[in-house]
Structure formats: C-alpha cells, structure tokens
Amino acid sequence: MLRVLILGGTSDVAELASRISDITGVEAITSLAGRTREPVLPVGNVRVGGFGGVTGLVEYLQHQQIDVLIDATHPFANHISWNGAIAATEAGIPRLLVNRPPWEKLLGDHWIEVENITNAAAALEHQAKRVFLTIGRQEISAFTHLQEMWFLMRMIDPLPANVITPPGFVLCDRGPFNLENEREILTHHQIDTIVSKNSGGNATYPKIIAAREMGVKVVMVNRPPIPPGEEVPDVESAVMWLLDKVNLQ
Ligand code: NAP
Q1: How far apart are CA 234 and CA 232, in angstroms?
Q2: Relative to the CA of 82, which ligand 1 atom is closest?
Q3: Residue 170, strand partner residues
Q4: Distance CA 78, CA 31 (A)
Q5: What pLDDT is attached to residue 248?
Q6: Residue 182 and residue 50: Cα distance in Å, rounded?
Q7: What spacing in Å lies between the alpha carbon of 127 and ligand 1's midpoint?
Q8: SS3 for 29?
C-alpha cells in the first residue's frame, strides 16, 4: 500500500480524493484545516485541524507512515504549503503541489494588481465607493479604516461577534458562483470595485467576467511565492503523477 496524505482546502480536493480512492494499492488521508463550519467532506479518511507547525507535520507523516504528500491547498494558503515542503524533505518523502494556474488579465479587464491585502486596501483609497470584498474573512481587518466606503463582504461562514468590519454588509455564501448571480450582485449593490485574490479556477471566476462586462475595476491580489518542487496544474495531472509512483513501487 502507498500511503498518501492530501493537504486539502480547495474545491478540487473532493475530486482528487475521489480519483485517488479508485487507484488500487493507494490509501489516502485528506487533511483539512477546519476553518469552515460545514466543510464539504471528501471521500475516504479525513482528519481535521493543524498539525502544530513543521515539527508536528513531520511527526504525523512518520507516525502515519505516509509515503507521499500531495499539497492541494489554496494558492494563498502559504504557511501550510511551505510547512508541507519542509516537512516532506525532513521526512524524506516526495511532495507534489497541485497549483491551478492564475487568471490572466484579458482585453476589457480593469485590474489594479497588488502584492498583498494591505496594498489592496491602499489601492481602494480615493478610487472606490462601493466595494465587493471577496477575500474571505481572515483579513477583513485590513479594510476597517476605510470608513467612507461601503463594502459587500462575501465569506462562507459568519464572522465572530467581536470582529470589527468596515461599513457594509456581510453576505454568507459558498462557491461555485454563476455569472448571472455575480452580474446581479454588481448591479444591485452598485459595485464600482471588486477586491479578489488571484485564486485561479472556475468556481469564483464569474465575478471577474461580470466585472469585465460591466466596466467594474478589480483590485487583484497576486499570489505569494510557492515553495520549489514538483508541481502540476490540475487534478488529472496529479493522478497521473501518483500512478507513476504506484508503478515504481
Ligand atoms: P495557512 O495560513 O497556510 O495555514 C495556517 C495554518 O493552518 C497552518 O500552519 C496549519 O496549522 C493549518 N492548516 C492549513 N491548511 C491545513 C490543512 N489542509 N490541514 C491541516 N492544517 C492546515 O492557511 P490559511 O490561509 O489560513 O487557510 C486555511 C485553509 O483554508 C487552507 O487549507 C486553505 O487551503 C483553505 N483556503 C484558504 C484560502 C485563502 O485565501 N488563504 C482560500 C480558500 C481556502 P499548523 O501549523 O498547526 O499545522
């Protein structure tokens, strides 16, 4: 048996775990951070919660006798990806990063590209009045000083009561989102600017299409650097990579 640990956190993970469960001679455990209240659970074995940094992850890999690590976390989940890379090296096992390609700017897009969330907040100043904030809930505090703007803040789960938000409305919803829905949001709330991470993939891309159609600006946060190592763009290629490992056994 080849034992695989999948680091989860994206919509691709359910498909990846399902495809891996069909491979004879492979046993997988999917690990979720436990951030969302009702996560979409992949098939097979699932564990939830942090490992306790690199040390905890190395211990876990060794204790569970993991042979292969597949990192299918979100492109902005930087800590766990670097921890995974270091831990896999320390444990002496191969690691693969499933890194879906970022969105490319197309004709008609009005993007303001920034390097991080703090710069995204700075880019809004003197430019935006009604903002669709689609960065999740963890970094909302970077926008609280922008009291003269109005924000529609979309996230999966409600914020804890003690979190201070900028003026506006919290919309709890989970992707995938369709184009009609995104057009309706931009129109109904008279949005002039979207703030988005460059997550790539199809599930959250319709807002970018709607912005292009309607001449809405997008403050696009570019991705943080990824750890060096083997990398594939999608689930299909990850399955092929894993099949090679099985065949080498
Ligand atoms: P992060 O900053 O990279 O990770 C913070 C800590 O959370 C890690 O050090 C680790 O704790 C724990 N963790 C993260 N992913 C884990 C996993 N799959 N299994 C076990 N522990 C995990 O990540 P984040 O940005 O807070 O995101 C948390 C989760 O939400 C990730 O799995 C990510 O894929 C998903 N997500 C993130 C974003 C985003 O924009 N950041 C968007 C969509 C989904 P220990 O150090 O204790 O091991």
Answers
A1: 6
A2: 3
A3: 153
A4: 16
A5: 83
A6: 33
A7: 32
A8: strand
Instruction: Looking at the CA of residue 7, tell me the nearest atom of ligand 1.
Output: 18
- Please tell me the residue having the least CA distance from ligand 1 atom 15: 33
Assess whether the C-beta atom of 80 lies below 6 angstroms from ligand 1.
yes
Phi, psi at 240, each rounded to 5° = -60, -45
Ligand 1 pocket check: which of 31, 79, 155, 199 to mutate, most ligand atoms within 8 Å of Cβ?
A: 79
pLDDT above 90 (res 131): yes
77 lines ligand 1 (CB under 6 A): yes
Q: Give residue-wise pLDDT tens across range 2-53.
A: 999 999 998 899 999 999 999 999 999 999 999 998 888 999 999 999 999 9
pLDDT tens string 54-102: 999 999 999 999 999 999 999 999 999 999 999 999 999 999 999 999 9
CA dist., res. 196 & res. 113, Å (int): 10
Q: What is the pLDDT of residue 75?
A: 96
Cβ pair 152, 171 in contact under 8 A: yes
138-143: which pairs have CB atoms within 8 A and are 24 or more residues apart?
Answer: 140/165, 140/166, 142/117, 142/118
- Angle at alpha carbon of residue 125, lines to 119 and 131, rounded to 5°: 90
Is the pTM higher than 0.85? The answer reads yes
Count the residues in the chain: 249
Residue 103 per-residue DSSP state: P
Contact present, 131 and 154 (Cβ < 8 Å): no
Measured from the CB, is residue 51 less than 6 Å from ligand 1? yes
How far, in Å, CA of 40 to CA of 187, rounded?
Answer: 30
Percent of the chain with pLDDT over 90: 94
CB 208 within 8 A of CB 103: yes
